[in-house]
Every structure is written in structure tokens, then in C-alpha cells.
Amino acid sequence: MSSTQKKTLLQVENLSIGFSQYVKGTQKRVIWPINDMHVDIAEGEIVAVVGASGSGKSLLAHALLGILPGNAICLGSIMYRGEELTDKRKGQLRGREISFIPQSVNYLDPLMRVGKQVQIGLNKKSAKAQQERLFAQHGLNNSDGRLFPHELSGGMLRRVLFATSVREGVKLVIADEPTPGIHPEALAEILKQLKQFADDGAGVMLITHDIMSALEIADRVAVIKDGTTVEISEAEAFEGNGERLKTEYTQRLWRALPQHDFDTEVTGKAVVAPCL
Ligand SMILES: Nc1ncnc2c1ncn2[C@@H]1O[C@H](COP(=O)(O)OP(=O)(O)OP(=O)(O)O)[C@@H](O)[C@H]1O
Ligand code: NI
């Protein structure tokens, strides 16, 4: 599906994020890990955001959710459903219309049973039943709900995190690396669920290192490098030798994936890969 056919849900333009830091004790300076980044998502569209570690993917997610640290400076324009996404609005929509699947399981409360955590934000009356349904859908046992985060495996915790994102009325899903530490079957299930969000009309931002998995469901791919957007291309452009990709950086990234080893042999040229 192309974004031109659908209504724009989210439009990020000229996003820069800086942190003021003290140097030499008292002198302050600002570093800018995100510089002039842009990305947009239409209703019902899945946009994968890929980029090397430290390129600024999580900061982008946190800026959209309004959960950047207090010393962060955020510039640029974030439009959501045609209106500026102010800090106040971010707070109102977070965990409701805008759903977040965080990168780290540390986002879970270590002192609260995981079942209870999944019930947060659900209608009080039906919360317990709905949580149990979500657990079943995510391959978790009913009895797991009584456990605390430290009593679950990494893979199980990721599934709990995922269950916290499924809320009625979700219009934008931001998933930050939802798949590491997950076995292939669960990976397929997560991709299927993200696809389901999109089929139900939500926009999905899928932040990941795993381009091949992302391409199974993504409509477009935004490539991030050093805090800026290098390229946004239709998922279909990621095929063959990557001739349809716009930048050399993305072409190198694509050709360096393990699946494309044979290309190096055919051309006899060594591919210098930007690492993901
Ligand atoms: N609170 C902070 N203060 C200063 N710099 C920060 C802060 N948070 C993040 N950064 C810097 O911003 C850059 C981008 O970080 P970010 O976590 O967004 O990367 P990422 O693309 O999500 O990486 P990964 O794939 O490893 O999760 C990094 O260089 C990081 O050091
Ligand atoms: Ni990250």
C-alpha cells in the first residue's frame, strides 16, 4: 500500500534532539544525536525504521511518545492526525491511541505482577478477562500472570510487553526492536500482530535491526544514519541487487546482508558494509 493512497497519520519533519551536557565541570554544551530527521506514516501503513546501533531510532520513538529525559531539547515539527503533537497531547495519547512496545524489558515494573501490568489501561470491569485472552494470544499461561518480571524468561517478557500494547482504539503503534531474543515461531506471531494492527487501520512504526523480517510486513523502510534520515523507500525496492534503492548507503546495507553473499562472489568485489 502506498502512503499517497492513505491519509497521513504521522508526519515528522526537521526533528532534532539535543542534550545539554556539562564539559569541564561548569561549561555547558549541547550535543545533537538527532539532526533534521524526517519520517511519515499513513493510516494502515507499516514503516520500518532501520539503522545502526546508536543511529537514533529509540530517541525518535521516545520523542514521539514524550518520554525523552528532562535535559533533552526537541526541535522540529511532529504532526499527528493533522495537529501538532504537543507534550500535553503526547501524555494524553500515550498508552491509549499511541501504543508503545519498548526496546527494553526494563520498562516493566519489577515490583508488579506481569498480569496486573497488562491490565493497566484496560477497561476495569473486563480487564482481567481481557488480560487472560491477551496472554493466551501471546502464548503465555494464565498462571504466568502471577509472576514478577524477574521470574520470566527474556522471550516471555517480550511477549508481556507486546500484550501491553494491544489496546482498543490504538491508532499508532511504535514498536522498538520487538523481536530480539524471540524464537522464530514467536517472531512470526509478532509480525502477524503488527500486520493486524495495520489491517485494522493503525499506523505502525517498526524499529528493527532485522531488515529481512521487517520486509515481510513493511510497506516502506526508512533508513537512519547518524541521527538523520538517509532514505525512505518502498519495501519493494529492497529486492535483487538493490538497484531501485536511492542511496549508495542503503544499497551497501542491502547487499551486505548475509542472504546476499552470492552477490559478492558474482561481482568479485568486496562489499564494505555499514554494520547494523
Ligand atoms: N540521554 C542521553 N544523553 C545523551 N546522549 C544520548 C542520550 N540518549 C541517547 N543518546 C545518544 O543518542 C544516540 C542515539 O541513541 P538511540 O538510543 O536512539 O540509538 P538506537 O538507534 O536506538 O540504537 P540501538 O539500535 O542500539 O537501540 C546515541 O549516540 C546515544 O549515545
Ligand atoms: Ni534503540
TrEMBL record:
The membrane topology noted for this protein in its Swiss-Prot or TrEMBL record is: Peripheral membrane protein
User: What SUPFAM superfamilies does the record tag this protein with?
Assistant: P-loop containing nucleoside triphosphate hydrolases
- Cite a single GO MF annotation: ATP hydrolysis activity
- Residues that span the membrane, as ranges: none
**Keyword field:** ATP-binding, Cell membrane, Ion transport, Membrane, Nickel, Nickel transport, Nucleotide-binding, Translocase, Transport
At the top level, the lineage of the source is: Bacteria
Q: State the family named in the UniProt similarity comment for this chain.
A: Belongs to the ABC transporter superfamily.
- Give the protein name, as stated in the record: Nickel import system ATP-binding protein NikD
**UniProt source species:** Fontibacillus panacisegetis
